[in-house]
Amino acid sequence: MPILTINGEEKEYPKGTTFEEIAKEYQPQYENLIVAVYYGSRIRELMKKVDRDSTLSFITTFDEIGINTYTRTAVMMLIKAVRDVSGKHPAFTKVEYKIGNGFYCNIRADFKVTETFAESVQKRMEEMVEDKLPISKKGYPLNDAVEIFAREGMDDKVRLLKYRRSSEVNVYTLDGFSDYYYGYMLPNTEYIKWFKVEKYHDGLLLHLPTRKHPDTLTESAPREKLFSEMVRSTQWGQMMGVDTVGDLNDAICRGEFDNLMLVQEALQERRIGEIAQKIYERKDVRFVMIAGPSSSGKTSFANRLSIQMRTYGLRPHPISLDNYFVNRECTPLNEDGSYNFECLEALDVEQFNKDMVDLLNGKRIEMPTFNFVTGKREMNGDYMELKDGDVLVIEGIHGLNEKMSYALPAESKFKIYISALTTLSVDAHNRIPTTDGRLLRRIVRDARTRGASAIHTIAMWDSVRRGEELNIFPFQEDADEMFNSAQIYELAVLKQYAEPLLFAITKDDPEYFEAKRLLKFLDYFVAVDSQSLPKNSLTREFVGGSCFKV
To answer: Cα separation of 547 and 413, whole Å?
Structure first.
């Protein structure tokens, strides 16, 4: 019998034992739900079976892989429930965006979503949990999988698989409903214990647990501004005829990339111009506060916004909040003793407010510069005085937090939230997390500008995201305007830069599984060259060649 090494102890299990059976044996030792396993150097779903000696460890919903497995399974159940309740085709549902802790699903065609319909979907999902319906997985030859999805009316999957290099496709089946998912799934519906379905705008919002609180359902506050910005970007994609990765690949292969890219750039430039006009129309604005998560393209956006502001006769002056870092020895520490550069206390808030109030009152001040090599703030004779038409464009992760600019009158501030809110989907049932797009941006930029390896960037990503959850996302709805910096074509451009960096990560590295996941994701895309991108493109902030100092 195969011998498994679990938590340092060796145990024998009959060949053919499912990992689910072993997980149930060890579940009492774990606070969170076990949803998958590490089997040697590979990740295995719980429906898979033991076939050899190996080490075994467990993946729970507290892990990124685990909570994504839970989410993916719940989404499949929702799509199946919608079909059962409505009697409509599974292609009838599209998973659009993540809004807070929920996933917005658009119910296509002329179907009207009501509160009663949402309640019926909730009830059907609860029945599925109670019935413990199995979810099977089977590999099909590529052509057979395409035929399955064609019969189901999933034209988006048919287009996607046209570019698939692998000769086999894994198809999951739940109670007669077959689908394809990018990632791992649970073995049956019993595991999905926490969820809530409600009507939201014209679709459904599926509330699910978060990694931080994986065993409870915490509903987030409404995020109407975020939703509106996502809808705007979706409409742009529909106008360009690109809703999914398959659509993008088709456009590239038809030789339409340049036209697609130029239209996307023009749409973003028009949007930046609209924001500049609103700043101009608010005559009391002297401070434009820009904040957003890592790799949102804040620097390029601030430069492009400044250019648009000049067309209205304003004189923008860029300022980075990083120049107000406290000296290194005064920086707060994390629990592990490392510096916490992302908390508000890492900035000299009092000095920033004093300087800004002095400028607002017509005084001439000397602006600081932070020396990241010495870890000291320096005064290098950079004097500033605000005159008529002068506006400070201030960029930093705390820009939307009122505590950062507490001394400034509300009417003097114009707040902008920027993020790469990816609305392109792999297919109708597999959305692309916005964090994946930002992580790939950062991997490429860190390697180009800092000589940092992909291992380093991936290793610190969890810490970066925790800082965003605390310091940025809670304030996004307070913004006067939002800007989506994601470009519908960018992942096809980033692919050629990111792949070599990810391939450099070996099986011995802790970041290997994440690198492998990202490589599989990038494999969906047909790559394009970055040569034709405009010099002011937001994507150039990451791949290089920008006309701005980024």
So the answer is: 28
CB hemisphere CA count around 198 (13 angstroms): 11
> Contact at 8 Å (CB) between 397 and 346?
no
One domain for residues 372 and 490? yes
pLDDT over 90 percentage in the chain: 91
Q: Return d(Cα 532, Cα 525) in angstroms, integer.
A: 18
Closest to 326 measured CA to CA, from 343, 345, 339: 345
Residue 37 bridge partners (DSSP): 44, 58
DSSP H stretches of helix in 177-289? 224-240, 245-253, 257-281
Q: Is residue 549 part of a domain?
A: no
Q: Is the pTM of this model over 0.90?
A: yes
- Number of structural domains the chain divides into: 3
| Separation of alpha carbons 251 and 239, rounded Å | 13
What range does the domain containing 369 cover? 226-543
Question: What is the full DSSP assignment across 499-527?
Answer: HHHHHT--TTSTTHHHHHHHHHHHTTSPP
d(CA 26, CA 20): 10
- Model confidence at 373, pLDDT cuts 50, 70, 90, reads confident
Per DSSP, helices labelled H in 185-256 are 224-240, 245-253
